[in-house]
Write a structure and sequence with these properties.
- The chain is an alpha/beta fold.
- The protein has two domains: 172 residues, 3-Layer(aba) Sandwich (Rossmann fold); 94 residues, 2-Layer Sandwich (Pantoate--beta-alanine Ligase, Chain: A,domain 2).
- The strands form two sheets. Strands 1-4-3-2-5-6 form a six-stranded parallel sheet, sandwiched between helices. Strands 7-8-9 form a three-stranded antiparallel sheet.
- Strand 8 and strand 9 form a beta hairpin.
- The longest helix has 16 residues.
Length: 290
C-alpha cells in the first residue's frame, strides 16, 4: 500500500494508474475509522480497480466553538486497518499541504447547504465543498464514495459535482448502525455510558415516524412530533432540529407526497449527533390522508 503525504506523490500514483487504464475509487475521511467508513471503502474496492482513502481532519469545516482540537485522531491505526483491507493508497496530507500559505479560494454551494446543519454550522459546507474540490482535482478519481448518514453533505457534493462539471461519479453508501440502532460516528466516542444509552432514541424516533407514514400520515408536523417525543423522553438529549425535506434539494416538504428525508440533529450532553431516514409516502392512501 502506498502511503503518500504530499500532493506530488499521490498525484503521481493516480496518474500512473490512469495511464494504465485503471478505474480509481476514492473515499475521503477524517480518520478515526469505524465500520461506517470501512463499508464505504468496501464499495470502492468492489467498484474500482484501485482505491485511495484520504485521512485529513479538515479545519475549514469546523466552527470556532466546535471540536477541531478534540476530534479523535489515530492515523497510524487507521492506515494499518486500511492496509489489511487491501486499500491501494492512503493520502495523509498536512494542513499546510492542503492549504499552503496564502490559500484564499473557497467553494460555496448555495441553496442545498442553507438549512438543517447549514443553519447551525455556518461555513461548514463551504469547508466541505472546498476540501472535496481540492481532493478531486489532486486525485482525479473516477468515483467517490460518501455515506448517507451525512445526507446534506451528500446532497452538497452531488450539486458541486454537477454544477462544476467534475468528472467523478458520486456513490452513496448506506448508514451503518450498531445493533441497537445508533448510527456509527467518530463522535460516539465522546458519549458517556448513559448518553450512549439514551442516544438510541434518535433512531427509535425516526422509525416511529416511518411507521406513522406507513399508516397513512403525510403531515410533516405529525412526523416531526413523533421524532421529538421520542427524543424528549430522554433527559440527556436535546433536539437541535427535526425536519422533513426533499433529499436532493434539502427544502422542507409541505406534505409527504414523494420520498422525503427525515433528518435530525441532537445534542447528547455536549456531543452533537445526526441521523436520518428516507421515508416513502404510503401506497394507495386516500386523498387527504394525514
Amino acid at each position: 500500500m502506498e502511503l503518500a503525504r504530499t500532493e506530488e506523490r499521490i498525484r503521481g500514483v493516480c496518474e500512473d494508474w490512469r495511464e494504465d487504464g485503471l478505474q480509481i475509487g476514492f473515499v475521503p475521511t477524517m480518520g478515526a475509522l469505524h465500520s461506517g467508513h470501512t463499508s464505504l471503502v468496501d464499495i470502492s474496492l468492489e467498484r474500482a480497480d484501485r482505491t485511495v482513502v484520504s485521512i485529513f481532519v479538515n479545519p475549514t469545516q469546523f466552527g470556532e466553538k466546535e471540536d477541531l482540537d478534540a476530534y479523535p485522531r489515530d492515523p497510524e491505526s487507521d492506515a494499518n486497518a486500511l492496509r489489511e483491507m487491501g486499500v491501494d493508497a492512503v493520502f495523509l496530507p498536512s494542513e499546510e499541504e492542503m492549504y499552503p500559505p496564502g490559500y484564499s479560494t473557497y467553494v460555496e454551494v448555495e441553496g442545498v447547504s442553507d438549512g438543517l446543519c447549514g443553519s447551525f454550522r455556518p461555513g461548514h459546507f463551504r469547508g466541505v465543498a472546498t476540501v472535496c474540490t481540492v481532493l478531486f482535482r489532486i486525485l482525479r478519481p473516477h468515483l467517490a464514495v460518501f455515506g448517507r448518514k451525512d445526507a446534506q453533505q451528500l446532497a452538497v457534493i452531488r450539486r458541486l459535482v454537477r454544477d462544476l462539471r467534475l468528472d467523478v461519479e458520486v456513490v452513496a453508501g448506506p448508514i451503518v448502525r450498531e445493533p441497537d440502532g445508533l448510527a456509527l460516528s467518530s463522535r460516539n466516542s465522546y458519549l458517556s455510558r448513559l448518553e450512549r444509552e439514551q442516544a438510541t432514541a434518535l433512531y427509535r424516533g425516526l422509525l416511529r415516524a416511518e411507521g406513522l407514514a406507513g399508516e397513512g400520515r403525510t403531515d410533516p408536523a405529525a412526523l416531526r412530533s413523533a421524532v421529538r417525543a421520542e427524543i424528549e423522553s430522554q433527559p440527556l438529549l436535546s433536539a437541535q432540529y427535526v425536519e422533513l425535506v426533499d433529499p436532493s434539494t434539502m427544502r422542507p416538504l409541505e406534505r409527504l407526497d414523494r420520498r422525503g428525508l427525515l433528518a435530525v440533529a441532537v445534542f447528547a450532553g455536549r456531543t452533537r449527533l445526526i441521523d436520518n431516514i428516507l421515508i416513502d409516502p404510503p401506497e394507495n392512501r386516500e386523498e387527504g390522508a394525514g
